[in-house]
Design a protein that fits this description.
With 393 residues, the chain is mainly alpha-helical. 70% of the residues lie in helices and 0% in strands. Helix 13 runs parallel beside helix 15 and helix 18 crosses helix 19. The longest helix has 24 residues. The C terminus is likely disordered.
Length: 393
């Protein structure tokens, strides 16, 4: 332990720093000694000396590869210091090191992601700022680190470890949907198919089948829906819809197991609502794709007949809503083929007949979707007038 006063120690290290900075040979012994001194000061009993170390390690770390590990570990130690002001300087030192040595971006980004778990709200602000700066330095690597925390691993964990991972995932998603969103949308994923866009979208789409509805909500509504690559015309929206509908099919098997018992769309409806969000509300994909799913999966008599009246009314309303959205999409320019549209037109009369029969069988006047029924009848009239399905009717 240094027996000198704090003032003397501060004066001494500042003088040593000035001499080292004036030394023209970057790899000189005096500069190496200065780096070693800074590494030692990172573990000083005095906060002010630790802050000096945090502020100046960046000046020497890349010139002495043999001391890199010691130096970066000293920075990490500063981030876990008992004193808040030292920790905050440690977060900034992580950014400084990454700027000096690009190869540290991945490891440092991972450390910053872990530091999102801090219980100090003010410090989390500094951590998020540092993580955003890493995004700007190397978006591909940093987004890869972030997505690694979002996608659940295949191997099982004990309850405590699982809880920690779930909490960290929610913090990472909140960062993507909050502080990182502007830089993601404006700079890093603005070009569809760019490496950063591919890393982020592929990672999030891969995660969706493994996550809880709350996490999926954040990914779809707060992150993916904002990305330029999901605006029409794009295959990204269809890719997302296919994932959600796969979930809906699995949920429907759970809600309506084999047999004749009636059931409710308790789990299925969540994914249907999310599919409607991207198809109708935000037009990330042509609504006709979701309409086709309803036609083939939810409107057959064997399915509708087993549902409670509330869910029957929900499906009737949804089909009417999707029909209107599909018609509007045609006027705005559709990326569906003529064959797809013809197939939907051909199915419409039969589907409509089933839905109207179900509507008539709903006993509760409060549940009957009158407006949707009117829309379906108007749709039949339009089909008749166009002569597309006269024989069917």
């Amino acid at each position: 332990m240094d027996s000198r006063s704090l003032a003397e120690q501060e004066k001494d290290i500042r003088e040593q720093l000035r001499r080292a900075e004036r030394t023209p040979v970057k790899t000189s012994a005096s500069r190496k000694d200065t780096l070693k001194r800074l590494i030692d000061l990172a573990h000083s009993e005095h906060a002010s000396l630790k802050i000096i170390a945090a502020t100046n390690l960046k000046l020497f770390i890349k010139d002495f590869p043999e001391l890199e590990d010691e130096a970066i570990n000293a920075v990490y130690d500063l981030c876990e210091d008992p004193v808040s002001s030292v920790r905050i300087k440690g977060y900034a030192a992580i950014v400084d090191v990454s700027r000096e040595q690009q190869k540290w971006v991945k490891r440092n980004a991972d450390v910053l992601v872990q530091l999102l778990q801090s219980d100090e709200p003010e410090e989390v602000t500094f951590v998020k700022r540092a993580l955003t700066q890493h995004l700007d330095m190397d978006p591909v690597v940093t987004l890869g680190v972030i997505c690694d925390q979002v996608v659940p691993p295949d191997e099982p964990f004990d309850e405590e470890e699982q809880s920690i991972r779930d909490r960290l995932r929610s913090l990472v998603l909140a960062f993507l949907a909050g502080e990182a969103k502007r830089s993601l949308v404006e700079r890093h994923t603005s070009s569809p198919g760019s490496p950063a866009e591919q890393i982020l979208v592929t990672g999030l789409l891969k995660a969706i089948p493994k996550l809880s509805p709350g996490d999926v909500d954040v990914i779809v509504k707060d992150v993916l829906a904002s990305l330029p690559s999901f605006k029409l015309p794009s295959t990204r929206g269809k890719e997302l819809l296919d994932i959600l509908l796969a979930h809906a099919r699995a949920a429907l098997k759970h809600d309506l197991p084999s047999g004749n018992e009636t059931g409710a769309l308790q789990n299925t409806r969540y994914y249907l609502e999310l599919a409607s969000f991207i198809s109708v509300d935000h037009r990330l994909v042509n609504p006709s794709h979701l309409l086709r799913f309803y036609y083939t999966t939810l409107t057959p008599k064997l399915v509708l007949g087993r549902l409670h009246e509330e869910d029957q009314a929900y499906i009737i309303r949804s089909v009417a809503k999707l029909l209107a959205a599909s018609d509007e999409a045609k006027t705005l320019g559709s990326n569906t083929t003529a064959a797809d549209e013809a197939a939907l037109r051909k199915q419409f009369p039969d589907v409509c007949t089933v839905l109207l029969q179900v509507f008539a069988g709903i006993e509760s006047d409060e549940l009957r979707p009158w407006t949707a029924c009117l829309a379906l009848l108007q749709g039949i009239v339009r089909v008749c007038c166009s002569g597309a399905a006269i024989r069917k009717l």
